[in-house]
Amino acid sequence: MSLYTTPLQIGYFFSLLMWILFLIRGYREQRLSDKLLGWIMFLLAMELQDYTFGFAGINVLWNELNGFPRGVSLLFGPVVYFYFRAQVNRSFKLVKKDLWHFVPYLVYFIYEFSAFIQGPEAVVERYDSDYNLYFSYIFRLARWASYIFYLTKCLGIYKQYRAWSLNQFSNTELINFNWFRDFLYAMVFWLLFREVMNILDGFLDLEFYQDWWWNLALVAVALYIGLAGMAQRQPGKIEFDMDSPDGPPNLVRDAVPAGGKTLDSEKAAIAKKLTVLMEKDRLFLQPDLNLDELARHLQVSKPLVSATINQVFEQNFNDFINDMRIAEFIRLYELHGEKYTLISLAYDSGFNSKATFNRAFKKSKGTSPIEFLRQ
To answer: Which residue has the higher pLDDT, 252 or 297?
Structure first.
C-alpha cells in the first residue's frame, strides 16, 4: 500500500467490478447500452492495468506476456459511439456492417500478436526494428483520428437527440442530457491530459513514477463514469433512430414556412382539432405526455403532428405543452393561491418537478414564478 499503488488499485478493481455489474444489469433488463457501458469500464481497467501491476511489483505483463497486444485505444471510439447509439434508442442492435468500426484495432492486434507468438526474441527484434518506429507513429495517428472521429459523431448524436426530444416529450427530465455532455467532457479531459503527459515524457524522459499522474486522472474518470452511469435514469421507451428512413430530426424542414407562405388546410385542421382536444381532455396535465400518445389521440402521424405544432403554433412540442401548463398554473394560483404552495399548484398543472417548472416558467415568461406573480 502506498500513495502510488492504492489509487490505481482502487480504480482498477472498481472498473472491473462496474464492468460486471453493468453486464448483469444489461442482461437482466435486456439493455444494450448497459452492456456497452460495462465494456467501456473494462477498457478503462485495461488502460490502468500496466501501471497498477507495475507499482504493485507484478511483472507478468513484461515477462511472460511481453509483446502481447494490450493496447485498447482503438476500441474506445467505436464502443463509446455504439453506447451513445444504444442509449438514445432502446431498439438499437449491432449488425454485421458495424464490424468495420473494429478493423483498425484488428490490424493493430494482428501486427502485435504476430511477433508475440514467435517468442521473446521475435518481440525484441520487432521493437528494435526501424519499421516498428514507423508503425508506432502510424498507430498514434490512427488513435487520435479515431478519438476525434468518434467523439465528434457522439457530439452530433447528443445535439440531434436533444433537439429531437424537445419535439417528442413534454417532460425531458426523463432524459439526462447532462450525462451525455459530462461523459464527453470526462473522456476528452482524460485523453488530452494523457497526451500532454506523453509530450512531456518525450521531452523530459519522465520516470515511471512521474507517469503516474495521467493514471490518477484516469482513476478519477473511471470513478465518475462508473458511479454516474449506474445512477443515471433509464427511460423505458426511447426510439431516436439515426438510421431511420426519415433520418435525424430536421428542424429546418419543420420550421415555420419562410416568406409568409400560407399553411396548408390539413395542418390548420389538425391545429384546430388539437386545440379542442387540449381544452376538452386536458392532456397537458399528464406529466409523461409525449408526441406518440398525442398522435394516437389525434389519429394523425407523429411527423404531421410535430410539423403542425412547429408551423402553426411556432413552438416545439415541449414548449407547446409547458406553456399550457403554465397557463393552468396561473389560473390555479388566481383561484387558490393563498391555500396551496406554488410547487403543489405546479404539480397540479402537469409539471413533475420543481426544477422543470422553474426552468419552463422562466423560458416562457422571462422571469421566475415568484417575480412574475409579484407584478
So the answer is: 297
